Structures are given as C-alpha cells and as structure tokens.
C-alpha cells in the first residue's frame, strides 16, 4: 500500500477577499471518497484536518491571471489570460514554488479567485470567480474550486495529478453528431475499424471508449449500459458502432454513484499511476524524504559525487575514486528509515595525498583501526557515527597521509567523561579537529572527539547547551575575539535540541551566526550575509520532529562568491550539483537531512503566514515546511 499525504491550502486575495472556505469536514470527506476508489488498487491518501489545512492570503495563489480592464475580449475561441500581459505564467510558477515546499505531499489548493470566463449573455470574456477545478501531470499541485469539497471531484483531479488522462476524447451531444464525427474521420483517411478511437482518451487498453453521458437516455439507469451509433458513409455503406463505457471509472464525466456503484480505476490505470510514482515526477511522494543542501565556491576542482548510495556500492565507488587519484572531501552516512543507511561522497583531485577509509565498522573494530592508522603515520580527516537502529552504532573514518600531528581520540564517551577529557586535551596543548554527539538510544548521548597538536592555538568549548544559553555563549566568544571552528545540533529526544561548539583564538574574522532558523528566514539571511561579503563556513539542517526543519549557519569575512541550494530532494539536488560543478564550481559544504513524515501542529487559522516571500531565492530552491519559529528561539533571530 502506498501512503500519500495530502496537504491543503485555502487561499484568499492579499486583502482577504474571495476567500475559499470549504469546511475541514468536507475536505476530509473528499479524501475518504478518494480512498474508496484508490485503496483497492493499493493507494491510500493520508489527511488530518487538524494539521493538514493551511490558510494563505496571496493574489498569486488565489487568482489565475491579471485583470486588464482597458480591453474587451469578444472572441469565444480565444481565451484571454494566457498572453504575457496577463502574467498567467507568473501565477502558475508561484503556485508550483509553494507546492514544492512540501516534498512528499500532494499540494491541493482550494481557491475562489478570479480568472476570465466566457459569458454567453454578455457575449464576451468576463473577469470573475473561477468555478471549476483542474489538475495535470506536470504541475506540482491540484487546483480545486472553493465549492468543490465533499464529493468525488478531488479523486478525479488526483487522478490527473497521478498521470491519468480522461478516458474519453470527443463527447458529442447527439447520435447524429457522433455519426458525423465518424464519417469525417473516415473521409479524412481514417480506418472504419479504428473509428471508436475518436472516443478513447487515455490509450489504456482496459478502459473502453467513452462518448460521455449525453447520448444516453438516462445516465443513472443501471440497465442502459450501451449506445449504438448508426453511420452511413459517403460511399453508401452502413455500419453501426456500439460503445459500452465504464460509467463508474473516476476519470470520466459521468455521475459515478447514481447507479449504486462505487467509482474505481482499472488495472491499467493503476499501472500508469505506479509509473508516475516510481519513474515519473511524482517520485517525491514515495521516495525517502531526504533533503539535501549545499554551498558551492568558484573554481573547478574536478569533483565527482555519489548521493544516496547503499553500502556495498558506495564502498566500491570509494575505492574506484581513490584508484583514480582522487581524495574524498565530503562523506556522510544517514538512515532513510528502518536502518537503511545511505551514503554521500564527494571526491576531487588529490594532489598526491593518499587516503584510506573504513565504512560501517563496529566500535571495537573501529577503535583498533583508528589506532593502526595513527601508527602508520596517517591522520583522521573525517569521522562519523550513526545508528543502524536499536542502538547499533556504526562508524566511518577517513585517514590520509601528511605527517604525524600527534592525534588522539575518544570514541563513544558519556558527557561528563568527555568534557573532562576535552579539558585534559586542551591542557596538554592539543586542539579539537573533530567532535560529534549522537544518541545511542533513549536519549543517551555519546561523544566522539579527535585532537591534535595545536601550534599555539587556544580553544574553548560548550557541550550540550540549550538554545538560548548557547546563542549567548556564541556571542560572548565572538566578542572575546574567538571564531567558531565546530558547531553541532542534536536531539536528546522529543525535540529537545542541544548544541555543541568549539571556538579558537586568532580573531573572530567577522563571524556572524544563525541558530535554529526556519527555511524562509534562513534563505533571506544567506542572501544578506553574501551581499555583505561574508561566506558560509558552517551549515547544518536538522529535524525538530514532525518535519520541522531548522538550519544553523556561521559566516565570516573570506571573500569570493558562493552559490547555494537548500532543501532539495535527491534527484533535483543531483541535477543542481552536476550543473554547478560542470560550470566551474566546487562543493564547499553539503548536508543531507531526513525529514520525518507528518506536518507540525499549527495553532491557528493563520498557519500559512509562515510561508514568507523568499525574496531573492532562486525559483528552483525548494523549502522545508513553512512552520513557526522555535519556542526557545535564538535571541539573535529577530523575526517579529
């Protein structure tokens, strides 16, 4: 069974007018009816009226195009609104951008805004409230009319979203009109045997041709299953064509329930939907909800990448990269659910540096391997611990040649022991070059650390601090002329986020920081920092729970431009990575964040106020969920 979550946005104009007001109960009923249709085919739509309904006042979401009062449009065959002066593409682009901020969800807009519609009484196109619903296989949303909740229409539009066309093509109003269609088809070179293709809309073999209900005396009569169309061709020959449409198929325009049946989709239509979910553009509905972010600097370093690879494939790829004379500059392992670990890696030209690696090793084996690498004159340049599930911690490490820096290490230490060890290392004249906190289960946090000779650099540290305390400490360290060289956020359980930081002497280098910021605000902050000549030197994305993604960042004066992409699903991120690295850039920071399923609980009808405008953000950049700030908010985050 595929579980697909639906999220709805009820729109209004900027000033609150033309508001869509379907009730939560009626929307939930539409989803229930959709599940009656799709559940037998293994597709289940999830919807919680308490968390999955947002409201947002935005002309671009509520309307379909601009109004142009200075012109009158009287040609019924030419619909205004699509020409550039109406900016219809701008409206649709905005709807897509907002929908893409909900990866893993079907975005359903309920709107009451205006568009141009033909008036048969005024004999012209009139700008007024839209009265119909629509969807398609390429846009990122379903658009429902404000009044269209509570019946089967949502199921029909979801079908279009999942790549199901109408089962019909032509729908003549009379038997005579149907016969003329067939005569004209044959007169223009069509085969008499293929004439029923005029009434076939989807090319799926198990959905029969459908002429629509107009040719039937009573569409609700269960016994009236077929209609016959007698045709006399130009050569005088005669032939009768019988259509037996599937009147309960959700992708037609019949009343599907008046005969006592339940709407459905066919086996062939199910295959089409599965193709959309597995090979098509709806993969984000069923793929693991991993969101990728990165910054790229100027300069081609010949980088290659692997994103989301399984262990054996990644291990081989790593070996192949080393054999090709490249070195790893980024590596991350992460759980996509159920202990399924995936790996990312970035390699570049090595300039003679040799590396070794360990991937997915248990504690005792890894500790010994670490010692062996140090004894062989190599130093650790990457280390990570992660949980396979149930507290089965595994470790990755990368070591490289380059001289003995007197490295020492601690692996899997409890807080008090680790804090003391950290102090001892500093007292011995070493500096921390790696640190990680992680949960081994039940909120039991363990710490890893690597230290090496400091060459006179002095460090300070904070371990396991709450947000407000950590934010103040960060400010104090900058004021004292130190700069941040390490920062990490992690969850003690239940969304209790704690922070670690390491600062060192040598000047703050004009550092600034953002801690626990939501996506929209973080995007704006990125642009502001870059405009002021600072570059990002630390980036972390993490989930507070319920899909609430937060971002930490540290910037400093360092010159040079950066490109950034945030919160992209795998396939889109990979495309951006390839585009940037092939155009003279290299990745500087990269992180993968697993977004948990389920939307955060919104506390009022103003949930969607959290969208923000993302001024200056590239349209392709996707957002995490638009959610309220942390309760315990960074005091430096002035987002009133």
* Inertia-based shape: elongated
**Cα Rg:** 30 Å
Per DSSP E runs of 2 or more residues, the count of β-strands stands at 27
Distance between the termini: 43 Å
Query: Could you tell me the mean pLDDT?
Result: 87
What would you call the structural class? alpha+beta
**Strand composition percent:** 25-35%
- Count every helix, treating DSSP H or I runs of 4 or more residues as helices: 12
Percent helix range? 10-25%
pLDDT < 50 runs, ≥5 residues: 597-640
Number of domains: 3
Largest sheet: 5 strands, parallel
Topology readout:
Layout: E1 2-12, H1 24-38, E2 43-46, E3 53-57, H2 59-62, H3 88-99, E4 105-111, E5 114-119, E6 124-129, E7 141-145, H4 153-161, H5 175-187, E8 227-232, E9 238-243, H6 267-278, E10 290-298, E11 304-309, H7 311-323, E12 326-335, E13 341-349, E14 355-361, H8 363-375, E15 379-387, E16 393-400, E17 408-413, H9 415-427, E18 430-439, E19 445-453, E20 459-465, H10 467-479, E21 483-491, E22 497-504, E23 512-517, H11 519-531, E24 534-543, E25 549-557, E26 562-568, H12 570-581, E27 585-594
Parallel strand pairs: 1-2, 1-3, 1-4, 4-7
Antiparallel strand pairs: 5-6, 8-9, 10-26, 10-27, 11-13, 12-13, 14-16, 15-16, 17-19, 18-19, 20-22, 21-22, 23-25, 24-25
Descriptive overview:
The protein is α+β, with helices and mostly antiparallel strands and 640 residues long. The chain has 3 domains: 2-161, 3-Layer(aba) Sandwich (Collagenase (Catalytic Domain)), CATH 3.40.390; 175-253, no CATH class; 288-610, no CATH class. It has helices spanning 24-38, 59-62, 88-99, 153-161, 175-187, 267-278, 311-323, 363-375, 415-427, 467-479, 519-531, 570-581, and strands spanning 2-12, 43-46, 53-57, 105-111, 114-119, 124-129, 141-145, 227-232, 238-243, 290-298, 304-309, 326-335, 341-349, 355-361, 379-387, 393-400, 408-413, 430-439, 445-453, 459-465, 483-491, 497-504, 512-517, 534-543, 549-557, 562-568, 585-594. Strands 1, 2, 3, 4 and 7 form a 5-stranded parallel sheet that branches. It has a 3-stranded antiparallel sheet with strand order 26-10-27. It has a 3-stranded antiparallel sheet with strand order 11-13-12. Helix 1 crosses helix 4. The longest helix is centred in the first third of the chain and has 15 residues, at 24-38. Mean pLDDT is 87; it is low at 597-640.
């Amino acid at each position: 069974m595929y579980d697909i979550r639906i999220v709805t946005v009820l729109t209004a104009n900027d000033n609150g007018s033309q508001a869509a007001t379907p009730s939560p109960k009626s929307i939930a009923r539409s989803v229930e009816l959709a599940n009656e249709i799709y559940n037998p085919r293994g597709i289940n739509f999830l919807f919680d009226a308490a968390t999955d309904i947002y409201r947002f006042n935005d002309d671009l979401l509520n309307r379909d195009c601009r109004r142009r009062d200075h012109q009158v449009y009287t040609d019924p065959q030419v619909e205004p609104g699509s020409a550039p002066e109406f900016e219809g593409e701008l409206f649709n682009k905005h709807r897509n951008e907002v929908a893409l901020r909900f990866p893993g969800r079907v975005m359903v807009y309920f709107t009451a805004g205006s568009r141009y519609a033909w008036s048969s009484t005024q004999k012209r196109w009139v700008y007024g409230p839209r009265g119909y619903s629509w969807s398609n296989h390429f846009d990122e949303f379903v658009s429902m009319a404000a009044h269209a909740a509570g019946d089967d229409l949502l199921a029909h539009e979801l079908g279009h979203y999942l790549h199901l066309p109408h089962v019909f093509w032509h729908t003549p109003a009379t038997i005579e009109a149907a016969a003329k269609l067939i005569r004209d088809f044959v007169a223009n070179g069509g085969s008499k045997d293929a004439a029923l293709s005029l009434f076939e809309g989807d090319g799926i073999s198990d959905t029969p041709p459908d002429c629509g209900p107009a040719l039937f005396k009573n569409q609700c009569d269960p016994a009236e299953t077929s209609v016959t169309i007698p045709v006399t061709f130009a050569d005088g020959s005669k032939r009768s064509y019988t259509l037996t449409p599937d009147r309960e198929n959700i992708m037609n325009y019949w009343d599907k329930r008046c005969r006592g049946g339940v709407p459905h989709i066919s086996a062939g239509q199910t295959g089409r939907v599965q193709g959309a979910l597995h090979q098509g553009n709806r993969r984000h509905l069923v793929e693991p909800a991993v969101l990728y972010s990165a910054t790229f600097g100027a300069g081609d370093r010949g980088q290659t990448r692997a994103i989301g690879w399984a262990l054996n494939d990644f291990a081989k790829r790593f070996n192949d990269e080393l054999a090709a004379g490249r070195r790893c500059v980024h590596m991350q392992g992460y759980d996509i659910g159920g202990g399924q670990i995936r790996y990312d890696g970035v390699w570049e030209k090595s300039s003679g540096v040799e590396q070794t690696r360990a991937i997915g090793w248990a504690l005792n084996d890894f500790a010994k391997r670490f010692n062996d690498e140090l004894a062989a004159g190599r130093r650790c340049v990457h280390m990570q611990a992660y949980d396979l599930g149930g507290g089965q911690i595994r470790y990755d490490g990368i070591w490289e040649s380059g001289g003995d820096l007197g490295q020492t290490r601690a692996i899997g230490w409890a807080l008090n022991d680790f804090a003391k060890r950290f102090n001892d290392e500093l007292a011995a004249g070493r500096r921390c070059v790696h640190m990680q906190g992680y949960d081994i289960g039940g909120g039991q946090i363990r710490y890893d650390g690597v230290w090496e000779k400091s060459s006179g650099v002095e460090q300070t540290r904070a371990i396991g601090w709450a947000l407000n305390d950590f934010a103040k400490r960060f400010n104090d360290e900058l004021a004292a002329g130190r700069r941040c060289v390490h920062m990490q956020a992690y969850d003690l359980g239940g969304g209790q986020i704690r922070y670690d930081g390491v600062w060192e002497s040598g000047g703050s280098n004009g550092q600034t920081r953002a801690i626990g910021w939501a996506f929209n605000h973080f995007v704006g902050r990125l642009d502001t920092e870059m405009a002021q000549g600072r570059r990002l030197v630390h980036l972390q994305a993490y989930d507070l729970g319920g899909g609430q993604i937060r971002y930490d960042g540290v910037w400093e004066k360092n010159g040079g431009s950066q490109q950034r992409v945030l919160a992209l699903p795998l396939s889109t991120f990979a495309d951006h990575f390839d585009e940037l690295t092939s155009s003279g850039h290299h990745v500087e920071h990269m992180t993968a964040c697993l977004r948990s399923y389920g939307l955060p609980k919104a506390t009022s009808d103003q949930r969607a106020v959290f969208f923000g405008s993302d001024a200056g953000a590239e349209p392709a950049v996707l957002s995490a969920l638009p959610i309220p700030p942390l309760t315990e908010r960074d005091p430096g985050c002035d987002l009133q």
